[in-house]
Design brief:
Helix content is about 45%, strand content about 10%. By secondary structure, it is α+β, with helices and mostly antiparallel strands. The mean pLDDT is about 85.
Length: about 220
């Protein structure tokens, strides 16, 4: 039987080559559309609540932010467990739901509970939901570099602050419009900040009645 198959394949070698080419093309087409990753994402259904709290110690972040948020989340439908991390200036609460829970439904439940707990949090903090992504979803890393001798609008060489500003205000917003991109995280460089630092001694001498009378006198002189 095997000899007959080999003899027939040799005699009809062009037909055999054609079938092999068709199978190869079909295989390449199926490979491009196959939804199987080399490292499957086995992360459970989770929603992260990140709260930036500048100036808060880990104990303050735990007592004033993390604990109230965890208390408000308790009792959600499909909730499996919660875990939290309190660091300097940061509170992160991870809410884990049962497998099969719709991620958008879970985020809606968490967001509703956050609306009710905002009044009990410090006025300077604002909890935010993390992106719909996991550690295995980080698939691409890149760097922003200036060409040798390139200068900015002021005629100076690009600095790390210039590159960070270019990334945050030009590159990052455009990347977030790409289909399938959930979040773009910036690492490195120097973020440009504008700090308003009032002098308390001068402010204490500027009383509201004096400031108001001064403005009224200025209007009358005009």
């Amino acid at each position: 039987m095997l000899e007959r198959i080999i003899r027939l394949s040799i005699q009809q070698r062009f037909i055999v080559l054609g079938i092999a080419a068709v199978l190869a093309i079909v295989g390449m087409w199926a490979f491009q559309r196959l939804k199987i990753d080399a490292v499957p994402d086995i992360t459970n259904v989770q929603v992260q609540i990140n709260t930036a709290a500048p100036g808060f110690s880990p104990l303050e972040a735990e007592q004033r932010i993390t604990f109230p948020v965890e208390t408000a989340i308790a009792g959600l439908p499909g909730l499996e467990y919660t875990r939290s991390v309190s660091r300097y200036g940061l509170s992160q609460v991870t809410v884990v739901f049962e497998d099969g829970t719709d991620i958008y439904f879970a985020r809606q439940l968490v967001n509703e509970r956050l609306q009710g707990v905002r009044s009990s949090l410090p006025a300077s903090v604002e909890p935010e939901l993390g992106p719909i992504a996991t550690g295995l979803g980080e698939i691409f890393m890149y760097t922003v570099e200036a060409r040798r001798g390139a200068v900015n609008d002021q005629g100076k060489l690009y600095t790390a602050q210039d590159l960070r500003t270019l990334h945050d205000w030009v590159i990052r917003p455009q990347l977030r419009t790409v289909k399938g991109v959930t979040e773009v995280n910036s690492v490195g460089g120097y973020r440009r900040e504008y700090v308003v630092a009032p002098v308390p001694e001068r402010l204490s001498g500027l009383r509201p009645d004096r400031a108001g009378s001064g403005r009224r006198a200025g209007k009358e002189q005009r």
